[in-house]
Amino acid sequence: MRILLPILFVFVFLGSAFAEPPKQVSGIYPHLAMFNNEAECGTGAVVPWAGSLWALTYGPHSPHGSSDKFYEITPDLKQIIREESVGGTHANRMIHKESEQLVIGPYFVDKDRNVRVVSPKIMPGRLTGNARHLSDPAGKVYFTTMEEGLYEVDVKTLAVKNFIKDGNPIKKGYTEESGISTLNSKLPGYHGKGTFSGQGRVVYANNGDQGPRVLFDPTVDSGAIGEWGSSSDWQLVRRNQFTEVSGPGGISGNENPDKDPIWSIGWDFRSLILMVLDDGKWTAYRLPKTSHAYDGAHGWHTEWPRIREIGEGDNLLMTMHGAFWKFPKNFSSKNSGGIQQRSTYLKVIGDFCNWNGRIVCGCDDSAKSEFSNRRKVKGNLSGPGQSQSNLWFLEPAQLDQFGPRLGRGAVWMNDDVPAGQYSEPFWIGDGNFEHRTLYLKHDATAPVEIAVEIDEKGTGEWKNAGSIKTPNTTIFQPNYHGVWVRFKPAQDLKNATAMFQYRDADKRSTTPDKKFDGLAKLDDTKVSGGAMLARGGDFKTLRCIMNDENGLLGVYDLDGELKLKKADDPNGLKYTSEKGAIPENVITVDDASVLVVDDKGKRWRLPKGDVKRDKNGPLGDERICREVSTERDLFHAHGTFYELPAENSGGFEKIRPVASHPYRIKDFASFRGMMVINGIPTDVADGNPHIVKSDDGKCAVWCGVIDDLWSLGKVRGVGGPWKNAVVEAGVPSDPYLMTGYDKKSVALSHDAKETVEFRIELDVCGNGQWATWQKISVAPDKIEKLDIPVDAYWVRLVSDKNVTATATFVYE
User: Fold this and answer.
1) Which CA distances in Å does 488 have to 421, 438, 469?
2) SS3 682
3) How far is CA 192 from CA 46, 90, 319, 370, in A?
4) Element (H, E) at 13
5) Is the pTM for the entire model greater than 0.85?
6) What CA–CA distance (Å, rounded) separates 461 from 605?
7) Which end of the chain, C or N, has fewer beta carbons within 10 A?
8) How far apart are CA 361 and CA 363, in angstroms?
9) Which sign does the torsion angle of CA 349, 264, 290, 89 carry?
10) Ramachandran assignment for 561, one of left (phi > 0), alpha (psi -120 to 50 degrees), beta (any other)
11) In degrees rounded to 5, what are phi and psi of residue 356?
């Protein structure tokens, strides 16, 4: 035995050392996918603790437990489902330093990885936040719920005390050993998010509301920040949608709770809102939005944005409305400089952390309910058969390498503004954005003087930067430098708007990254592909119906080991063919551009890509639209992918382009946190690790993540609202997309025998608020070309004469 044991040890060690590492693509390890039996499977929290990574998932409304699990991920990426799992809709997490415990969901994990759980029978609710205790921080922890509930828990005994009742009905048969409070909160809003304590109070945020209007109108009053400490109920601070509440101490709480600031990030329909609490006083700032897919007034579309430590010294990482932000750890009202946007993304990220040198994002990838996100461009497509999500592992440098930086936001949006009242400060974006546009509008019939002030260094010291004497509408490129800008009108304004559009130059190549090698080009004829649908019934595979130019190849299943296997399943073929059907004729490609008519009957025009696509029009076997990240759609037309918000977050009005490409993509789907694409030549060569071939060699799929799309190629296109179109004087054209494109120009011509004046109108706000930017006179037999340096969501044209006209926009 003395001889055998060392030999056995060496054998085991070498076997472990040379074991094949788990498969991954684009930072996704398919075997780490998390599933439940609920309508949604989001990742509520991810935290490194005691050498492992801990994560939990949530269903959409489960205050008394669910099929969701509590996961431990070991350093060698083994997934352990903890037997203590009780499920629920939980996203709270905190490291309690004194007791050396991780608090995550209802679980307490000690330094030896032992887990205790507070039963939902004792502490019912959708746990959304934790905070350090105001009077006994070493012995107790606060918990808040999504329905305004407030508890404290003893970190040693797990005894529970309830201060404010959770707003959900108590489930029949549950007992509350510590007693449930009779106080029902009067705080407005719904759908709680972050919680933090300091300066003698607990701060709590919610980001939604209930009622019929929130289901279709993102401009309705919604959400709130509340405080608790000296009164029994939450006290309203601000009536807007807020998510994260944090401070310099982050997940462990502030080191100096009496003095350290507290931050909260949120939004309204105008822009993002950043609040900071200093010396007991709240100060507000405004930042631009990147994506509008988070904007629903019900709050469902915004899953726990965070401000978190990721090991970058004095800078934290903030996620909000589709952008990664650099957030300074010393941010305060007297030191408000240093915020920078890093890049833009498409994933829905619930939490993130630095673990073993990589950034790990817990995502919300595929919800089988799709939360009423139905539209005719999707046809009768069903959601995935089982909700699922995964962790996304990134190298820190990747945080700066996804989509081009982009931001849009207002300080006023059709607001009545009294004379002499300052707007809230809006971030200037120096060092981030090379192109800036400002749109000012009001109802006054004479020009109004609006004073401009700049906070150059973020110290709260405002300097005069001149004034704008503006008629009722103006669109221009401001030359402001500093950290923050604010406005003050000299007289009362009615229906005033001050809207910014920011963007960087798009420096991406027009050549796709090599990771896409193997996808079918437009001239390829021997191509495999077809409808795909994630299966239910705990199969945990992606069903693929594969066809080629000769017809059906068969039914195939992609599994968690990235193997594509042929299946003999006639019933499955029928089911997937019906539930995953690719609809035909849901968009139109005419001579001018791509035309989309949305579910409300509104017309929208988008650029066209390669002219070869015109030959076939919108091919009947190519997917146009589906969810790839929960509660927002990926739209695909004429060689460009777009992010498309759900209708109650703006819909087509707030669409934005992501990437343009030269490929023939038949279908795309979400599976185990990956984005899976088919439309691959049947004789595709080996060599690309993203290409997974079937076991019979007849077909293949491409596997990556949705944010790989940024490296498909710079967005570009040609088109417009008119091409040899009969135009009626004074009647505006269809709106044509402008947002997100880099170098823009327009060429105008007509067939009249006299000069025609064309009015170029822009919708800078993305809400149908049109304003004249330029008027161009075009002589007979002439083509007038104009570069467009400003930015807007949409552009349209109006002619002063009945004429046959062409307006061609070139986006490069």
Assistant:
1) 6, 15, 12
2) coil
3) 19, 11, 17, 21
4) helix 4-17
5) yes
6) 45
7) N
8) 6
9) positive
10) alpha
11) 55, 40
Phi and psi at 167, nearest 5°, equal: -75, -5
CA nearest neighbour of 632 among 378, 370, 272, 392:
370
Give how far the C-alpha of residue 457 lies from the chain's centroid of Cα atoms, to the nearest Å. 30
Q: Give the residue from 660, 642, 641, 665 showing the smallest Cα distance to 652.
A: 642
The DSSP code for 421 is P
User: Helices (H), strands (E): how many in the chain?
Assistant: 3, 62
Pairing label, strands 235-238, 241-246: unpaired
Q: Write out the H or E segment, with its range, that includes residue 576.
A: helix 570-579
The neighbouring-strand residues paired with 542 are 534, 558
Task: Count the Cβ atoms, other than its own, within 10 Å of residue 695.
Answer: 10
Token pair 């009545």 in the structure block, residue: 416
Query: In sequence order, which residues have a C-beta less than 8 Å from that of residue 114 and are 6 or more positions away?
Result: none
The DSSP secondary-structure symbol of 23 reads: P
Residue 417 tokens, joined:
């503004």
Where b means 16+ CB within 10 Å and e means fewer, 595-617 reads bbbbeeeeebbbbbbbeebeeee
Report mean pLDDT in 10-residue bins for the chain, 812 residues: 38 46 96 97 98 97 96 98 98 98 98 97 96 98 98 97 94 65 95 98 97 92 96 97 98 98 98 98 98 95 93 97 98 98 98 98 94 90 96 98 98 98 97 95 94 97 95 94 98 97 97 98 94 96 96 96 94 93 93 96 97 67 93 96 96 98 97 98 95 97 98 98 98 98 98 98 98 98 98 98 98 98
Buried b (16+ CB within 10 A) or exposed e, 768-795: ebbbebeeeebeeeeeeeeebebbbbbb
CA distance 744 to 738: 8
Give the strand order in the sheet containing 640-645. 625-629, 632-637, 640-645, 656-660
What is the C-alpha to C-alpha distance for residues 423 and 493, in angstroms, rounded to an integer? 12
At 726 the three-state DSSP class reads: strand
Beta bridge mates, 278? 281
Cα–Cα distance measured from residue 325 to residue 364, given in angstroms and rounded to the nearest whole number:
20
Residues forming a β-bridge with 437 = 501
In eight-state DSSP terms, residue 575 is: H
